[in-house]
């Protein structure tokens, strides 16, 4: 940042206006993104039980992200125009149904379609849920971190559930993985709907007492740079999520349990990094925080590649997880302030699309792993934090919305 930009960065308010309703929404986010975390956790079992190649395995990651990436911006535009609030519940139940059906039968095509269906559910959930989270969190990046860390926790918990279930009963036991989200739909979602109505009444009353602020134009140029950074970070994240467990198992000689534990540590460290990113952004600025995350990813990747054993690799996995999620919630908050008139669109791109578009590139790295080995595939991921860092040079601190 230039000296002039630095002078304009002031500490941001960390006050969260509606903490209780936000907490309920965070709970639903845990269960939605559990199904994203379930996909990479399933890959070692699919490789072992169905003898998939690395290309076929990463094709499953593509299934989770292809339709999600295509339809997510559309859901964002729809929520800007119509605020389809029931998408929060519908997305939750469709995501669960897809993962539940993914292991039924032995057909690769059926597994692929079922996981693609789960991805559509995830895509439907995120824009409207993120819009609601911003309204409950206000301008606090920490509040948005609380929402996004719910998804990170869901992804982190998934291997802890998926690994023992599939180890005990095989890939055909995937219907059991849908049970937690069904329970959340029946319990958490109705509680949140009632809490949301109370928040809307309070916000409407506040608007009547407060003069309307002059509208700000959407800054599409800065949002474009942000989108580039988000996509590159997503490619690196999905590549790592696809290969962390396989790398420890097939390159460093770990067991399937060790691979699942590494994946949990990777995403668990991400949850801590996500919260830390929100705190840092409120104190030192959002643009500085996202750049810091991209920079720290590089030594994390180097440490992972050079690790002589599983223990050292675990340390590198912690660094990678924390660094890759440090800018995660900050992306969302920045995007919403760059597009103050299109909060749903901004949310669909910066949160939902960030958790899906990288999967489109996963089969490319799977093919590279089949041809040149896992080390070469993981090493190729180092390009993408550099791309994110380059894109971040076009970012500036917007005024809060």
What descriptive keywords fit this protein?
about 400 residues; mainly alpha; Growth Hormone, Chain: A; about 0% strand
Fold and architecture overview:
The protein is mainly alpha-helical. It has one domain (about 20-205, about 220-390): Up-down Bundle (Growth Hormone, Chain: A), CATH 1.20.1250. The chain has 16 helices and no strands. It has helices at about 5-10, 20-50, 55-80, 85-100, 110-135, 140-170, 180-210, 220-250, 255-285, 285-305, 310-325, 330-340, 345-350, 360-370, 375-380, 385-390. The protein is globular.
Would you identify the regions where 5 or more consecutive residues have pLDDT less than 50? 1-11
Corresponding CATH architecture: Up-down Bundle
Report the C-alpha radius of gyration, rounded: 20 Å
The share of residues in helices is over 70%
Tally of separate helices? 16
Topology:
Elements: H1 3-8, H2 19-50, H3 54-82, H4 87-101, H5 108-137, H6 141-169, H7 179-209, H8 220-250, H9 256-284, H10 286-306, H11 310-325, H12 328-338, H13 343-352, H14 362-372, H15 374-380, H16 383-392
Care to give the gist of this entry?
The protein has 16 helices and no strands. The protein is mainly α.
